[in-house]
Amino acid sequence: MITVLLADDEHLIRGALASLLTLEDDITVVAQAATGDEALAMARAHRPDVAVLDLQMPGLDGVAVADQLRGAVPGCATMIVTSHARAGALKRALSAGVRGFVPKTVSAQQLAQIIRTVHTGGRYVDQELAADAIAAGESPLTPREAELLSYAEDGAPVADIAARASLTSGTVRNYLSSAAMKLGAENRHVAARIAREHGWL
Length: 201
Hints:
Elements: E1 2-7, H1 11-21, E2 27-33, H2 36-46, E3 50-54, H3 62-72, E4 77-82, H4 87-95, E5 100-103, H5 108-119, E6 124-125, H6 127-136, H7 143-152, H8 158-165, H9 169-183, H10 188-197
Parallel strand pairs: 1-2, 1-3, 3-4, 4-5, 5-6
């Protein structure tokens, strides 16, 4: 029996998926979570064989959860399911050890088969998502620029970002200005949105 953790902040989708997967003879859903932090806690408590993670969740996103699970629950294979595929997210996911990257448009039967594939050490990446990732290319941002843009995403003032990153306000302005210029954005907020849309944050 393959034990599965489902993490999705949309209760209806998560519940429906759990019900459909229980119809499979060899799969059982042992835990469900609505946030990234909850997914980590549930994975530690239940030690599932496979974690099916929504890409965008409150708190930690699916890729961040997958990355932490590598150390916290090393026997757990991870896969990302998303309705908002961003090109750069695939690369981040693969770097985090994710074995499956799937759009939410797959059927329950397909998802069950993909769960079996990743459980046995295989990998599944949706072809369209992979093509988008190749077309989008590499992020033009340095790791520090991406980090500071992610802090700017929620509208935080420069002083707060500087305190969080242990940098001076002037240094933060320089990094954010450089990132905005690279992305052709008029300000840091637009730059953060562009970077997020490309999966570079």
